User: Fold these one by one.
Assistant:
Number 1:
Amino acid sequence: MPDDRLSDSLLQVRLLDTADAAVYREVRLSALRSDPLAFLTTADEFAARSLDSVADRLTPSDTATSFGAFLDGHLVGLLTLAREKPAIFAHRVNVFGVSVLSSARGRGCGDALMRAALTQAMTWAGVTSLHLAVMDTQHAARRLYERHGFTVWGTQPDAVRRDGQVLSEHWMWRALQP
């Protein structure tokens, strides 16, 4: 999906698959290392996963898929959608693992990933809402989600303790209109 606002770079968003495992792993590790407070998974935990297990998670299915944002052919952003599996929750899709490398921020990657996610979620029959959580330290991410129609429905205080910091987590959702 090219973004007309970018005159000096070609931005594309596409579904990732097992062939993208090595580059996905590299970009995800970079995100976890550069902004550890944004994620529940630590860089060390993710680094311990085998490339095969990373590839398995990138296999698109009817309940989970991952997108990559590419600038000039280089993977710079990630987003995963996962539909709840129990029948009573199958109307809900979770957005997680959203990240854009610091060198690519401010260039429309996050917006393009969110548009792709919304479009994909609308293709899944019966889906009525999207859900995500964002740490209270992630102001730019929260603004991104709000631009795409997400609103905070609750905040969990003392949600995460990492590196001597106590973090709250904002829970956000948005209705999905076909």
Number 2:
Amino acid sequence: MTKREVTQLSYEIVGLAIKVHKVLGPGLLESVYEKCLKHELIQNGYFVQSQLSVPVNYEGLEIEADLRLDLLVNDIIVVEVKAVENLNPVYEAQVLTYMKLLQKPQGLLINFFSENITKTMKPFVNEIFKALPEEA
């Protein structure tokens, strides 16, 4: 996996999120957008896990924290779906924490309660992404 491949996958996910947003518009529940985005991703050939349980391991102690990740695409990109008026910093921390716990290089925080999701969508990368090669 390269930085370019991860970035391209991220771009494609956002494109499908835009399609869902154009069809549905703002104002629905997060779960509706999540299900529709999952459907679009699967229809376009991506492997998608939804409501994935995120394990927490603290110094060898497995903690049942009931953390649920909205979507994991191709076992690479964490996608957190929101439908809120304002994106709180806790949502950003949530995405970054899921990325860390699952050892994934990129995360997307997509807010469907917006006139233009590209203006409110936030991508995140971490040290795993930075360690990926540019090219294969």
